[in-house]
Structure formats: structure tokens, C-alpha cells
């Protein structure tokens, strides 16, 4: 029998677990205010609660083909600090989509924080898609803080797609991502981030291309509104014959500030690494064009920002 | 009567003062092994020796139109540490070319080092072209070290072109460049750097666009051979309506390593900053094409490297 969810949890889940939405079916684990409210395993995907610390171990066997794992986190208690360690063991040849995400509803005056520390052990030839949405809401004055740490270990010929988005409402975030790549491994990262008001966001990413013919494509798009600040520090290290392309584009609005500090580090003759970054304001011509359709300036900006982030 | 120069000094001058070559004419100052060997002023450009520390003050008046100042430095004594402070006062409206450069001939076993600390005070509407070549030679085992510090203060509507090249033979260099730009100021930087053997090069550059409509274009090209290492950290900070474009391209050969850490920092809604960087090996197709002309691999590489750096 499925667990009964309160209104706030359901509302937050609609934001962070998009697509078909969160259901208590298949492989899943719903963490709410620091405890696992409900979870389920399947033939190929086993979810086990950790014994020594908060979090789960997720075992995905090699016969997994196209299955999804949903592991949303909801924090609705003001003043809560929730630290969770999730480890994913993806067997050789598995093909899986992991849908994570964290939403904080803070209606109090104390800071609510969630730190998700995730490690992915990706077997040979496995194909993993990892989606992660971060979101904050609530009428309280307490800050909504998310500090995710993501470590990805990729074996030969594996593929990992990291699709991460901070939608809105997160007052402070420091993201740490580290990827180690074996021969022939392929990494795709799409990072989207929107900050507003006095929010602060920092994203540090290090990609170590250690194996021959590994390749990485990193796309980061961000919009900074209000007096928010963002700092990006993606780092691509080529230690073998490899290929990487990093692209960071940001739109600044109002009084916002964006710093982008990409680092490309070639330690091998056949490491080919390219980086592009641009920061600028909204395209004025686009704005004018949309306003001729009768949109207000705000509406037009909204359309452009949404198009830019999608 | 011109000062008599020794063979080594003449030979080094041919490398670092290119174009028409160094002559003891017009406005000039030749510094050799820590002392000013000879110098001259003109109607519009006065060179004065500093009283309180090593170095010169160069006063360029507003009627200077297209004149050149040559201030080469030669260090040929092994084991010497030569620190020099040169200040340039460029009056409103002046148009001047400053040709600097330092060559170290080290035939001993002790490290020879030259640190040129240069400050440019560029008046309104002035146009300055600053050329600087760094070079090392000599059969000695002692290191040839160059640590230039360049500070540029640009007033309204001034223009500054910084053309800097490290040709070869410099074992270790740490370059620090800082530019502060007033309204309408325009900065052009071309940095070329070649390292070989066990050489190390680091270049840190910060450009502060403080005035409205200031703009900066920075092009950095480097070739790293042998087991040399290079680190680039250009930084463009937009504090007003401004425009900047940074482009860093590097070729790695052999066992060399290159790190490029550009930083773009937009602190104003109308700061538009673009950065591009690429590190890779020599274009193989080009190499093959040149070899069909009968060139050896080395010769073909030489041609490509030279074309890339020019």
C-alpha cells in the first residue's frame, strides 16, 4: 500500500520529479525530512538502506534496460539539516535513468539545508542518465540551502549524462562535481541554473579524462536576476588522448553578478580541449520583437529566459 | 658619442629590439647588468633616472606624435638579480611607441634574473603601443628568469596596445599584468609565448573595465614543447557597460602541459564578456601537407609553430 503524502510534499514533488511525475512504483525512494518515507526495489534494481550513515545503496544489475529509479528528497521542516549519502553501483552493460532532485519548503525563519552526497560507480559499457532538479519554496524567511556533492567513476566505454537544474527558490548552493573517466568513456553534462533576489550559487566541476579516447561535453547555462551572484569553475583535465568541449553562457539581469572561471588543463600531447564562455544581457532585439506582440517587458524577458534555459 | 657595446650585448639586442633595431638615437635607455649604459631624451620625451631606486621615469608630452622610445635591458652576468622600476607618464593626447625587451645571456651556472616593474599612466585620448620581447640564451647551466610586472592606468578615451612575446630561452617566468580602464578606453593585448625543455611560464592578467564603453581584446597564443609547462590566468572584470573578448589558443607538443584558466567576471548589467580557449596538438593535415613538400617532420612543425605565433 502506498504511503500517504501530505499536500506540501506532493506539491514539491511535482516540481522536482518532472516528466511522468513521482509514483510509488518500480525502484524508488522518497526521503522526507531526513527519513525514508517509502521505497521499493525491482528485479534488476535493489535499494538498500545504509547501516552506518543516512542514505541508500542502489544496486543496478547488468540486465537493467531502460528502467528508471526515482529518489526525490523533500525537506519541509524549517531549521533542518539533512545530510544524505547515496551510492549507486551500476553493473557492466546496464542502461538506467536515475531521477533525483531535492525540494525545500521552508515556511519558518530557520535555515533548512540538504546536502546530497552521491557517488556513481559506472561499470563497463553502462549507460546512465542522471537527472537532478533543485527547488526551493515557502513563505518563511529561513534560507533554503542545497550543497550537492556528486562523484562519478566511469569505467571503460561507459556513458554518463548529467542533467542538472536549479529551477528557483534556492538561496544558497555550493555544487561540487568530480568525474573520473576511463578509456572510451563519454560524459555529457547539461547544467542549468537560475538565481534571483540575494541568492548565491557556486558550481565547481572537475573532469579527469584519464583513459584514452574519453570525451566530455559540458554545457552550462545560467540566468542571474536581482542582486544574485553566481560563480562557475568547471575544470577539464586531459591526461590521455581525449576530447573535451566546455561551453558556459550566462545572462545577467538587474544588479546580478556572474563569474565564470573555466579551466582547461592539457597534460597529454593528444588532449584536445576547447572552452567557450559568454556573459551578457538579454538580447535587446529579441525583447523588442516580443514586445511588439503586446507582451510587457517582464513577460518578454520571461519568454527569453525560459527559451535560453531550455 | 655613442657608448661602445660588446658583442654579446649587440647580439642580444638584435633579438629583443626588432624592427629597425636598437640605435643610440632619439629617446632611449639601455640598461646592462643593472646600470644605465647610455640614454637620451628628445624635445617631447624626457628620460630621468630615479633617485630612490633603480629605474627611470619617462615623461612623454602631449605633442608627441608617432615617436618611439627604446628601453632594452641586457643581463649578461651570471648570478645577477636585476630589479628595475620604470614609470611612464604619458600626457593627454600623446601618440607614442615604447619598445622594451629583456635578454639574458647566461654562460655561467648561477641563476640570472630580471624583474621589470613597469607602470604606465596613460592620459586622456593618448595612444600607446608597448612592445616587449623576452629572450634567453647562453651555454651556461644557470637559469634565465624573467618576472615582469606591468600596471597600466588608462584614462578616458585612451588606447593601449600591449604586444608581448617570449621568444625562447627563458627558463622561468611569472608575468603579472594589471590594467585599469576609464570610460571609452580601448585595450588590445597580444601575448605570444613559447616554452621548451623544462621551462615554466605563468601569466596572470587582470583587466578592470571600470569606465563606461571601455573595451578589451586579449589574444594569447602559446606553444609548449619538450616537458615545459604553462599556466594562463587572464581575468576580465566588467564594472560598467563594457565589452571584452578573450581568446587563448595553445599548441602542446612532446610531453608539455598547458593550463588555461580564464576568468570572466560581469558585475554590471551591460558588461558583455566573451571568452574562447583551445588547447590541442599541431594540426595533422597541415603537417602531412608540408611533408609532401619534402620537409622533415621537424621542419614542418617549425613552419606551423611560426605561423601560429605570427
TrEMBL record, chains A, B:
Family: Belongs to the iron-sulfur cluster assembly SufBD family.
Ranges of residues in domain SUF system FeS cluster assembly SufBD core: 90-308
Provenance organism: Faecalicatena fissicatena
Pfam families xref list: SUFBD_core
Protein name from the UniProt record: SufD family Fe-S cluster assembly protein
